[in-house]
TrEMBL record:
Protein name (database record): Complement component 1 Q subcomponent-binding protein, mitochondrial
Domain of life according to the entry: Eukaryota
Species of origin: Molorchus minor
InterPro entries according to UniProt: MAM33, MAM33_sf
Pfam (any one): MAM33
Family indicated by similarity: Belongs to the MAM33 family.
Length: 143
């Protein structure tokens, strides 16, 4: 099992800021990195590739508590290339979709794992952001 993700453009606030007329700075929710991530399940020369992303609480289906969903699926032999067919998770049969989520959970890719992935991603993104600010400061000051 191989999981990859990129922290660029992955930060979103937990809640919309509340705006009040007499407050200079709005209250902003906690900044969390919630990157899309790819899960590759490899057996021999065959790879099942699943592109997943976080589900906003407002978009969750009633009765389901999944915090991530499958955006795209593909299966291929050897190396991936641009001719590999990929299907959107939205058009996959709901029973098959649930079976795949259950399979992922059996392999350890559960809500708990994805929450930990978000925590790790948030910490890494925060350190990268600080590095960007330090580099920008040095650049502007001419050092």
């Amino acid at each position: 099992i191989k999981i990859t993700f990129n922290v660029n453009h992955s930060v979103d606030t937990e809640a919309e800021p509340e705006l009040h007329e007499n407050v200079d700075k709005p209250e902003i929710g906690e900044l969390k990195s919630k990157p899309s991530f790819k899960v590759e399940l490899v057996r021999g020369q065959t790879t099942v590739s699943l592109l997943c992303s976080f589900i906003n609480p407002s978009e969750q289906d009633d009765g389901y508590n999944d915090i991530f969903g499958i955006d795209e699926m593909s299966i291929y032999e050897g190396e991936w290339n641009e001719n590999v067919y990929a299907v959107s998770g939205e058009v996959v049969d709901s029973y098959l979709y649930d079976l795949i989520l259950n399979y992922l959970e059996e392999k350890g890719i559960s809500n708990e794992f994805v929450e930990k992935l978000s925590g790790y991603s948030t910490a890494y993104e925060h350190s990268a952001y600080i590095g960007l600010l330090e580099g920008l400061s040095k650049f502007v000051s001419g050092k």
